[in-house]
Design brief:
- The protein has a two-stranded antiparallel sheet.
- With about 280 residues, it is mainly alpha-helical.
- The protein is globular.
- Helix 1 (about 25-50) runs antiparallel to helix 2 and helix 5 runs antiparallel to helix 7.
- The protein contains 9 helices and 2 strands, in the order ααααβαααβαα.
């Protein structure tokens, strides 16, 4: 590779080769290491589930989701975003948000529903793959209104992973995983899969921006501390309430989308009306 060529993995001109080869900046490697650790955590969660160590299994899946959620942000903070990292992140999403939650849920409960439980797990995994593929394609869409960036189309994969494991949280809280409950959990799993591939607008929170008003800084810190404290002390109760709260927000997201659409239509109508009234 000559000095004028661009590295196909890291989209940058490489530094001068040393005695053992080219040198890649660490800012490119660190986010990818986190992505690999997330995959390891997700796969370890699957192993623990098949060993009937379900609480650790769910904890590993949640850890994988956390690591998978921060690797992209760390890459942007370190200015280490690359095409290679983006592809790694997409593959990790399939494992951590699709395969791992489905298999943990299947090992814990869905296996009692026999083939119907396995079909539900398969449908969830396929829906997660479709959801992620659609998300990657929509990143290249140009010309859409800026307000649409504040919404996801369908439930995002990380939220889907949190939602689909609700039966496991309830099981840890004392709900016995009977066969009837397993069939209900399978139907619930299919429902989450449908939400992921639906056209339902889901608020992304990007409208909040990257800056906070000064009077919101302390309340935000306090809320985060209290939430983490409850998550550490009452893990399954907190996750259950978080899942329910997410479901409650869905109608509000859809209503906000309709308000934006109505405002766009009104603005377009006003523009056309003003244009028609302009004298020739």
């Amino acid at each position: 590779m000559t000095e004028t060529e661009v590295d196909p993995l890291f989209d940058e001109k490489p530094q001068t080769a040393g005695p053992v080869g080219r040198r890649i900046p660490m800012r490119y490697l660190a986010p990818n290491v986190i992505t690999v650790l997330a995959i390891c955590a997700g796969l370890t969660g699957i192993r623990l589930a098949f060993e009937n160590r379900f609480e650790l299994a769910v904890s590993m899946v949640l850890l994988a989701a956390f690591l998978d959620g921060i690797d992209g942000r760390i890459a942007r903070m370190m200015k280490g975003s690359t095409k290679f990292g983006a592809q790694m992140d997409s593959l990790a999403d399939i494992v951590n948000f699709g395969v791992a939650p489905a298999l943990v849920l299947y090992a814990y409960m869905l296996d009692q529903a026999r083939s119907f439980g396995w079909i539900a797990a398969l449908l969830y995994c396929i829906a997660c793959c479709l959801r992620l593929a659609r998300f990657n394609v929509m990143l290249d869409v140009v010309g859409k209104p800026l307000w649409q960036n504040n919404f996801f189309t369908g439930v995002p994969a990380p939220a889907g992973a949190m939602l689909v494991m609700l039966p496991v949280y309830l099981g840890f809280l004392g709900l016995a995983p009977t066969r009837a409950i397993a069939f209900a959990a399978a139907a619930y799993t299919v429902g989450v899969a449908v939400l992921m591939i639906s056209r339902l607008p889901v608020y992304s929170g990007k409208a909040a921006g990257t800056r906070l008003r000064s009077d919101w800084v302390m309340p935000t810190f306090l809320f985060i501390v209290v939430y983490v404290a409850f998550l550490m002390s009452y893990t399954w109760q907190t996750l259950t309430l978080t899942t329910i709260a997410f479901f409650i927000t869905l109608p509000f997201s859809a209503r906000a989308w309709k308000r934006y659409e109505a405002a766009d239509r009104a603005a377009l109508a006003n523009t056309e009306s003003a244009g028609s009234e302009t004298p020739s």
